C-alpha cells in the first residue's frame, strides 16, 4: 500500500522536479497502467531493459540484446574460446533474446549447441 501511495504521488509532479525510475519493470497490468497514466500527463522516456510490449508507445531507449550477445560471443571465439558457457535466469524478454543468440551462434560457428552449457532456473 505504501508503494501504491508513493506511485500515486509521483503522478503529481508538484512533489518533485523530475522523476527517475530505476529497476526492472515487470510485465504486469499494474505497471502497464502506471506507465500509461504517467505518459498522459508527463513527458516520459523509458530507459529500460523491459520488453517492447511493456513500454508500448512510450518513447524509449533500449538494448539490442541479440547484437550485443553476438558481438561478445564473436570476440570470445576470435580469442580461441570454444567452450563458452551461458547462464540464464528466465526464458522471457531480453534474456530469451540473449539465449537465442547464444544458441544460434554456437550452432553456426561451431556446428554445435551443447545443452550443458545453458543453465536455466
Q: Any chance you could write out the topology, listing elements then pairs?
A:
Elements: H1 2-10, H2 29-41, E1 46-47, H3 52-55, E2 60-61, H4 65-78, E3 86-88, H5 93-110, E4 118-120
Helix pairs in contact: 4-5
Provide structural commentary:
With 121 residues, the protein is mostly helical. The chain has two domains: 60 residues, no CATH class; 56 residues, Rossmann fold. 48% of the residues lie in helices and 8% in strands. It is built from five helices and four strands; from the N terminus they run ααβαβαβαβ. The strands form two sheets. It has a two-stranded parallel ribbon with strand order 1-2. The chain has a two-stranded parallel sheet with strand order 3-4. The longest helix has 18 residues. The radius of gyration is 19 Å and the shape is elongated.
C-alpha termini separation? 30 Å
**What's the order of the H and E elements?**
HHEHEHEHE
Please work out how many helical segments DSSP would assign: 5
Overall radius of gyration: 19 Å
State the domain count.
Answer: 2
Structural class: mainly alpha
- Shape descriptor reads elongated
What does the main sheet amount to?
Answer: 2 strands, parallel
Amino acid at each position: 500500500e505504501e508503494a501504491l501511495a508513493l506511485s500515486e504521488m509521483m503522478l503529481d509532479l508538484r512533489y518533485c522536479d523530475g522523476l527517475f525510475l530505476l529497476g526492472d519493470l515487470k510485465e504486469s497490468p499494474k505497471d502497464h497502467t502506471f506507465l500509461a497514466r504517467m505518459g498522459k500527463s508527463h513527458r516520459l522516456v523509458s530507459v529500460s531493459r523491459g520488453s517492447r510490449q511493456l513500454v508500448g508507445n512510450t518513447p524509449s531507449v533500449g538494448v539490442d540484446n541479440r547484437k550485443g550477445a553476438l558481438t561478445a560471443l564473436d570476440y570470445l571465439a576470435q580469442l580461441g574460446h570454444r567452450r563458452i558457457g551461458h547462464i540464464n535466469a528466465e526464458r522471457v524478454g531480453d534474456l530469451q533474446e540473449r539465449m537465442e543468440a547464444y544458441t544460434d551462434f554456437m550452432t553456426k560457428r561451431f556446428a554445435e549447441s551443447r545443452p550443458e552449457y545453458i543453465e536455466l532456473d
